[in-house]
Amino acid sequence: MSDHGIRFGKPRLQIESYYDNRMPFLFFWIPNEFRIRYPEKLKGLLINQFRLITPYDLFATLQEINNLANINLLINRDNIRGNYDNGIERQSMFKIVGYNTFPNMMALLTGKNMSTVYKTCSSGMDHCNDMIIWSDFKKAGYITATGEDNLRLPDTFSKYGYVSAPTDHYLRPLFLTGEDTIGNLVCTEKLSSVKHILDYAIDFVNSYSNQKSFGMFWTNSYSHNLNNIPSLIDQDLVSSFQKMYKSESLRNTFIFFLSDHGIRYGKSRIPYESYYEERLPMLFLRVPEEFRKKYVKEYMNMQINQKRMVTAYDLYLTFWNILENSTTSDIIDTCRSCLSIFNEISPHRTCADAGVHDKWCTCHKLNSINKSDSDVTRCIKLTEEYLQNVIKGIKTIDCNKCESLKIKSVLRTHTYNDEIRNNTFFVVAFTTTPGDVGYEAVILKHKNEFTVFPIETITAYNTRGSCVKNPNDRAFCVCKTSC
């Protein structure tokens, strides 16, 4: 675009120059990912080609684009894919099965539901390491490795921690030497922590290129917090893939490149699209050439499944498929109908078929509904009561209690239907007082019965909830001194 039209010179002596001066040019390019995923927004852009717009409109547009974080992430990842498109598949219907990192990663690595995981792992991760997939690979003669950066976060395996190394190679001791946050970067010694992760992964693959190996490497430091900028990692990722391709260590190696969930909190959670963005994390697969040539049918199924619903449970079965060349689903009791993605997945698959709870399901179109609708009004009232009951059960340190929260403002209300089971679902996003904490609730209506599913926060980590004994309660507590 230009900043303005012609402001001086001979053309300014013409009558038309009055308009030329006030009408600069503007062109923009729309990525295919945006065209496919947001047809209504595309329609608006096309219509507005012939409407009056100003720099203020462009500023608002840029803010909204920034809110569509998964689009930006996919465009950035397509930069990598463009360099190495051979054998790389994108699963566009990969869905979460739980709220945050821990349930989604444990579904991926154990195939178990969270009640089983919490029961088995409550006294420490060492007690449940045998049910994690890398232990099965190790028993089969594979060399194993794992690593996770940004150890300050209460995520993944920091939740209960390991006393002994869970795999043959374990990266945690490096980060225990000291991670420092510099601006929005997390660094260990002279390199960013994510660079350590990538370098370690490359060394691991290259070192065991002629042996069977399984590695799980996880990075939080470039995308977990609101001030992180995922695009900063692009060049490091491209360089890492370049090194692996040049060494030919990927000739017999699968790569699963994924995130655990979309953006869960912050301003990005206010638009209604964020309902989908949170529930549709990214998943790219790199399939080795040897596999593509030897297992043509399985590879064709993988390509078909790019547009089919896939969950972490399916990936867990895929790991087993790679390990044992078996397609059985008997090893997973959480989702009996889940499948390895080497099998063709039905286009009519439901969330129930895939082990996805109604709360996290995205197989429907959200429809706006007026906040004053009688059902919505009832949902808001029931949600407030649900939240207050949660707060009553929170245990705090001495001389503190949690404020009783009330709904301050309703940000958005939407509804969708499950006609097969005659269910109606309502999605309500709202802020509360005191504390101005935001939440999103999903409420099920079956006949005339309403059920409020567990409420999730959509604002940044609550800094006012430090008085709780259980860190999981922090999101629902605004502390108040009581003595």
UniProtKB/TrEMBL annotation:
<dbReference type="Pfam" id="PF02995">
    <property type="entry name" value="DUF229"/>
</dbReference>
<dbReference type="InterPro" id="IPR004245">
    <property type="entry name" value="DUF229"/>
</dbReference>
<dbReference type="GO" id="GO:0005615">
    <property type="term" value="C:extracellular space"/>
</dbReference>
<dbReference type="InterPro" id="IPR017850">
    <property type="entry name" value="Alkaline_phosphatase_core_sf"/>
</dbReference>
<protein>
    <submittedName>
        <fullName>(African queen) hypothetical protein</fullName>
    </submittedName>
</protein>
